[in-house]
Automatic annotation (TrEMBL):
Classification via SMART domains: LRR_TYP
Its membrane topology: Single-pass membrane protein
The protein's name: Uncharacterized protein
Subcellular location: Cell membrane; Endomembrane system
């Protein structure tokens, strides 16, 4: 009984000595790190960080386990500075370090490689942090998550990065890393990889990645291998962004990536058909702007699609009307393709579309009446049909666009102001430039209660500027470079809402300032 008491007391006092020695050292190291960052002393004043539970008031941002720490350096408490090499003396006791947007400068200290049990390292958003990724970092095999994005790190990605066999997340985007993407095919725990927007050049390198990836960002990596050669292996992929590379080939086989929710590949040198997209049932966001996809767009029925960008390809033929009625679609961009018409399906008249933005400019063979659409567009706020053959003949059904506020019809086949639009009372901005057919300005029957901006640049309008007396909210009227316009319509000078009138490049002979009535709101007239 007695002896066991003595033993317990001895054990307690020995362990106490051991603990407090280490604790003092760790506390001193932590204070050095804090001081180097010009942290507020009030938040980092403790002496013994190994006492449990952690005293958050003494070491703000340090969480303690049993003899271990996790550190979050907060931007609200430090001013900035280098990461002090003293961090390394925490050795195997530091499990997690986060330093996001705290104005770190200098370089990553080599002593960081002494943190042998680190499983999470996040140092991001510090644009003054330069230097290389220390090659010894690949000895920290406990790492499951390594994030070094949005700094100014130089040099290459360590060629033996795959030594970090426990890594699940590797995020290195937005630095100035050069060289190639190392072979990562054996990193079969890796689910998220982002090396985008660096200075990597993979022109003569075949990128090899593990099949475990769920999220992959390879933007602007100068990759020039066939896209599907890479993706046919990453079969579980959910999010892919491969924009700004010289991928070659088609997307044939992509239907095997059944879990894709985001497929983004702007400026990717891809060609062929896009029809397999229709079988990606979980797709939420498709962006293939600026490629060479050709052929037709298949009918789609994608329950989760919210954004579809097909702009700047060679797609043509009839755009299936079902596209406009994807149950969640909000943004549709088909600009600069070769579509000839939008299909008409009377069954859609009874449907309600969720579309908010529709952009179709630059389809120079696209015919149809405005609004080109049938159905109920209860959420459509913006529509751009410029440089198409859209006309102002009556559509098959009157438009139902109760919240449309921005409409652009430049360079279309409308012959005058489309009267059909006068029922769309929600419009706040109308732009109709570059229509050279000469029409008497009296043909412009503009009557919009909420219109604030009317832009008519380089038009064949003849006679006076347009009558705006039925536009009580109009604030900006631009009728410039219309060489058949010789006078200002009196309504322009009498308006009580107009503040800016731009009339340069017309043939208006003279301007009589006394024509403005006393109550005119005009603050700027540009002749
Ligand atoms: C590395 O960790 C050990 C053990 O904690 C410590 O003795 C040593 O000083 C550390 N080295 C550096 C460079 O921080
Ligand atoms: C993946 O992680 C587990 C658990 O940490 C580990 O046992 C395994 O070796 C890792 N896989 C590979 C291929 O390294
Ligand atoms: C990468 O950049 C470093 C300077 O940061 C330079 O010394 C090295 O030669 C570059 N490597 C390649 C492969 O361009
Ligand atoms: C791609 O990266 C290069 C530097 O390697 C840069 O000059 C270029 O502007 C980037 N392109 C895009 C589209 O961001
Ligand atoms: C990448 O490494 C794997 C496994 O070592 C190997 O089979 C594959 O050929 C490598 N890829 C390239 C492009 O060298
Ligand atoms: C993946 O694509 C490459 C290159 O296109 C091809 O050689 C390989 O057979 C494909 N693998 C599968 C499983 O489809
Ligand atoms: C797709 O996701 C489901 C649900 O998470 C999963 O069961 C399935 O294995 C995944 N398919 C592939 C090919 O990874
Ligand atoms: C679209 O798919 C849903 C189920 O995902 C189905 O209920 C609906 O009938 C389909 N619509 C069309 C027009 O095929
Ligand atoms: C675009 O469509 C028009 C009209 O159908 C056709 O004459 C023209 O050849 C097509 N151009 C391209 C590049 O496909
Ligand atoms: C359009 O949809 C709205 C809301 O779903 C509904 O109130 C309205 O009656 C519909 N209009 C037409 C013409 O179908
Ligand atoms: C505008 O609406 C009125 C009443 O709702 C309707 O009689 C008229 O036909 C509509 N005009 C156009 C051009 O759709
Ligand atoms: C425009 O039409 C009006 C009558 O509607 C006429 O008085 C005027 O001369 C015409 N102007 C031009 C330039 O044709």
């Amino acid at each position: 009984m007695k002896s066991s008491h003595v033993f317990v007391l001895l054990w307690l006092s020995f362990s106490h000595v051991a603990l407090s020695t280490l604790a003092t050292d760790d506390a001193a190291a932590l204070k050095k790190v804090w001081q180097a960052l010009a942290g507020n002393a009030l938040y980092w004043k403790g002496t013994d960080v190994r006492v449990k539970p952690c005293n958050a008031a003494d070491f703000t941002g340090v969480a303690c386990g049993s003899g271990t720490y996790s550190i979050v350096l907060s931007r609200t408490l430090v001013t900035g500075g280098p990461l002090d090499p003293a961090i390394g003396s925490l050795g195997p006791r530091l499990l997690s370090l986060t330093a996001q947007a705290i104005n770190l400068n200098g370089q990553l200290p080599l002593s960081i490689c002494n943190l042998t049990n680190l499983n999470q390292l996040t140092i991001s958003g510090n644009p003054s942090l330069g230097g290389v990724i220390p090659s010894c970092l690949t000895s920290l095999t406990a790492l499951t998550s390594l994030t070094l994005s949005n700094n100014k790190l130089t040099g290459g990605i360590p060629s033996d990065i795959s030594s970090l066999y426990n890594l699940k997340t590797l995020i290195l985007g937005f630095n100035v890393l050069n060289g190639t993407i190392p072979n990562m095919s054996t990193m079969t725990n890796l689910t998220s990889l982002d090396v985008g927007y660096n200075w990597l050049i993979n022109t003569n390198n075949v990128v090899s990645l593990p099949s475990s990836l769920l999220s992959l960002i390879l933007t602007n990596c100068s990759i020039s291998q066939p896209l599907m050669g890479l993706l046919n292996n990453t079969i579980s992929l959910q999010k892919f962004n491969g924009a700004y590379n010289h991928w070659s080939g088609t997307i044939s086989g992509i239907s095997s990536l059944v879990n894709l929710t985001i497929f983004s590949c702007r400026v990717c040198s891809l060609s062929g058909s896009m029809s397999e997209i229709s079988s990606l049932a979980l797709l939420g966001n498709l962006d293939i702007n600026t490629n060479s996809f050709a052929g037709v767009v298949p009918p789609l029925n994608l329950s989760f699609l919210t954004s579809l960008n097909l702009g700047f390809n060679n797609l043509g033929g009839i755009l299936p009307p079902s596209i406009f009625f994807q149950p969640m679609l909000s943004t549709l961009d088909i600009s600069s393709n070769n579509f000839t018409s939008i299909g008409f399906d009377s069954s859609h008249v009874s449907l309600t579309s969720t579309l908010a933005t529709f952009s179709a400019p630059g389809n120079k063979y696209l015919t149809g009446s405005i609004p080109l659409l049938v159905g109920n567009y209860t959420k459509l706020t913006s529509m751009d049909l410029s440089f198409t053959l859209a006309t102002d003949t009556a559509p098959p059904y009157p438009p139902s666009m109760p919240v449309l506020n921005s409409l652009t019809l430049s360079g279309t086949a409308v012959s005058s102001f489309p009267a059909v639009l006068n029922n769309v009372t929600s419009l706040t901005s109308i732009t109709i430039n570059n229509i050279f057919t000469v029409v008497n300005s009296s043909m412009y029957q503009v009557a919009h209660p909420n219109l604030r901006t009317l832009t008519l640049y380089a038009n064949g309008i003849a006679g006076s500027t347009v009558d705006i007396s039925r536009c009580p909210s109009l604030a900006t009227l631009e009728i410039t470079t219309c060489t058949n316009i010789v006078s200002i319509h009196p309504s322009n000078l009498q308006s009580q809402s107009l503040t800016t009138l731009r009339l340069s490049g017309n043939k208006i002979a003279s301007f009589d300032p006394t024509a403005t009535v006393g109550s005119s709101s005009l603050t700027s007239i540009d002749l």
